[in-house]
Amino acid sequence: MPVTSDAYRPFESVNVPDLVGVVEDRLTQAIVQGRLPPGSRVVEAEIARQMAISRAPVREASRRLERQGILVSKPRRGFFVREMSVREIDDLFQVRLSLELTAVAAACQQADAAGLARLKDLLALMIDEAADAPQHRRIELDLSFHTLICELSGNAYLLRLFSSTQTEMRMIISLIDNVYQDPEMVAATHQPILDALARRDVEAAQACMKVHLDDAWQHVRNLFVSQHGAEGGKPGSAAKP
């Protein structure tokens, strides 16, 4: 898939010690915001030129993203943004559901008053900005709400596992136009989860979380199929240059 020069505009010159980390972050942002769409090639020379650095940090950042499953490499062709499939959407949501049901149950027992207040403030911000915020902002707030629940579980391993799924979740959402057709309603669907957490009601919290994630799963899946077909990209594949 051809990529316009606009895709590389975020890669301005940098002069910091951790060049690889900076390049990794900027590549990730370009991917999850759809500026480097699935199947597109990572042009190391162009990124290096715009950032005024050598190609080595760009290559190492690409290797890091390959290890995370975000990029795939083709011998003698370079790195490409991984394409997604319906199967991968299903797999990702299954993992996410398992993690978040565990997280919300633990948060009912572990979250303190300050943590619940943070969650309440975040939800208020989500609802307040729902009507006017751009899609990428809504996505960030939505994922921040779920990440905070994982944090409030007190389980650092669970939080790391959940965080590791977020780039791929953003990649999927970036492929879908108008994923939040009624953003105010979507924001409000988080309220029952917060209410159950505040009551320390594990059973209700898990039930609300399951309904919420099942609805999101079906919605994202249906939109992906309608816009990209039932097959989507082959799992782990990249389009030929």
Keywords:
about 240 residues; mainly alpha; Arc Repressor Mutant, subunit A; Four Helix Bundle (Hemerythrin (Met), subunit A); 2 domains; about 65% helix; globular; transcription
What does this structure look like?
The protein is mainly alpha-helical. It folds into two domains: 17-25 and 34-79, Winged helix-like DNA-binding domain superfamily/Winged helix DNA-binding domain (Arc Repressor Mutant, subunit A), CATH 1.10.10; 84-226, Four Helix Bundle (Hemerythrin (Met), subunit A), CATH 1.20.120.530. It has eleven helices and two strands. It has a two-stranded antiparallel sheet. Strand 1 and strand 2 form a beta hairpin. Helix 2 crosses helix 3, helix 4 packs antiparallel against helix 7 (156-164) and helix 5 (113-129) packs antiparallel against helix 10.
- Helix share bin: 55-70%
Gyration radius over CA: 19 Å
Per DSSP E runs of 2 or more residues, the count of β-strands stands at: 2
Show unreliable segments. Answer: 234-241
Strand content: under 5%
CATH superfamily of the largest domain: GntR ligand-binding domain-like
CATH class of the largest domain: Mainly Alpha
Mean pLDDT: 86
Taking the sheet with the most strands, its summary is: 2 strands, antiparallel
Question: What is the CA–CA distance across the termini?
Answer: 7 Å
CATH architecture of the largest domain: Up-down Bundle
Q: Indicate the CATH topology of the largest domain.
A: Four Helix Bundle (Hemerythrin (Met), subunit A)
Number of helices: 11
The neighbouring-strand order within the major sheet is: 1-2
Overall structural domain count: 2
Overall, the morphology is globular
Domain HTH gntR-type: 17-84
InterPro entries: GntR_C, TF_FadR/GntR_C, Tscrpt_reg_HTH_GntR, WH-like_DNA-bd_sf, WH_DNA-bd_sf
GO molecular function: DNA binding; DNA-binding transcription factor activity
Pfam families: FCD, GntR
